[in-house]
Amino acid sequence: MKKEIFAREASYQGMPCVELSAGGYYALLAPEIGSSMLRLRDTINNIEVFRFNENVSIETIKSSPEVYGFPTLFLPNRLDRGELKTSDDVYYFPINEGKPLYNYLHGFLHKRKHTVKKIQVENDSAIVKTEYIYDKNDECYKFFPVEFKAEFTYILSESGLEQFVTMTNLSEKMLPLGLCSHTTINAPFVDGGDVSNIRLRIPVGEKCELNERCLPTERLLALTDYDNQYKEGTINSATTSIDNDMYFAETFKLDDEDFHGAVAEDISNGKKIFYETGDEYKFWIIWNEWGNKGYFCPEPITWMINAPNLLLPDNATGYEELSPKESFTAYQHFYTKA
Questions:
Q1: pLDDT tens for the 338 residues of the chain, in order
Q2: What is the 3-state secondary structure (H, E, C) of the chain?
Q3: 291 and 240 in contact (C-beta within 8 Å)?
Q4: What CA–CA distance (Å, rounded) separates 12 from 222?
């Protein structure tokens, strides 16, 4: 089968998008929905990596962008009653997660319309770059007056899909640096597959205990037999009811190399999705809307839920800040094997 290579503007259900094709993969980017990669498909092995359904309307995706494609969140996950404490200020976001949780959830970056800066084919790769400038024109600025620039680079090739996200502090204040991908893996991810055959392997470390409001108690727990299913790759992440399992990220050996990431497998045919992250992603949260919803979310996150407000030291919570004019880049990589 011919492996087409292109990077081009396109329209999906009337919304401007960018299509990429290279190395036997096809990808569809939605700049207007936070630079989320709506689709990643291995066209040779018939693997649909992200949750994607042509019958789902763009309006539905825009109303719940966290549960389709590959969205990037800033500020990630939950802040207790909307409060965010930095080294030089305290900010209060509106509570958007109601009774009984009362938190600020998932931030705003994944809901903004981003600007396409470059579309190109280079050698055997298809590339798209986007950016979002956060300033006083954003509706959240009244709560969080800290300007920044978010830049996204996606590279599609025979190596799969690579993502680079660069955050740059454009303000004179300290910028809290928390990123998370609310990655939705299709279930089943093999055409014609059965969700009963899905298994997920993640090299998890200590578990972060959460309270009834899904916030860390600051207690770290040893792994139980249930938790060890992630390490052993025996958990069915599509059918098991999973509600915010949060762990420190570790590595395992893959082809004699340390692998920082997750692997999903269809055990009926051996087809696999490899999800590699940079070590800046220090934690995993696994969630699947309590199972049997047609997708599951292994979510890498740079800091612990509610990290700005916790009493644990920063080297435990992953909390970081960017000084004025400072930049930070995070890396992720998807590829498949059959």
A1: 468 999 999 999 999 999 999 999 999 999 999 999 999 999 999 999 999 999 999 999 999 999 999 999 999 999 999 999 999 999 999 999 999 999 999 999 999 999 999 999 999 999 999 999 999 999 999 999 999 999 999 999 999 999 999 999 999 999 999 999 999 999 999 999 999 999 999 999 999 999 999 999 999 999 999 999 999 999 999 999 999 999 999 999 999 999 999 999 999 999 999 999 999 999 999 999 999 999 999 999 999 999 999 999 999 999 999 999 999 999 999 999 99
A2: CCCCCEEEEEEECCEEEEEEEECCEEEEEEHHHCCEEEEEEECCCCEECECCCCCCCHHHHHHCHHHCCECEEECCCEEECCEEECCCCEEECCCCECCCCCEEECECHHHCCCEEEEEEEECCEEEEEEEEEECCCCCCCCCCCCCEEEEEEEEEECCEEEEEEEEEECCCCCEECCCEECCCEECCCECCCCHHHEEEECCEEEEEEECCCCCEEEEEECCCHHHHHHHHCCECCCCCCCCCEEEEECCEEECCEEECEEEEEECCCCEEEEEEECCCCCEEEEECCCCCCCEEEEEEECCCCCHHHCCCCHHHHCCCEECCCCEEEEEEEEEEEC
A3: yes
A4: 46
Structure tokens at 88: 């030089």
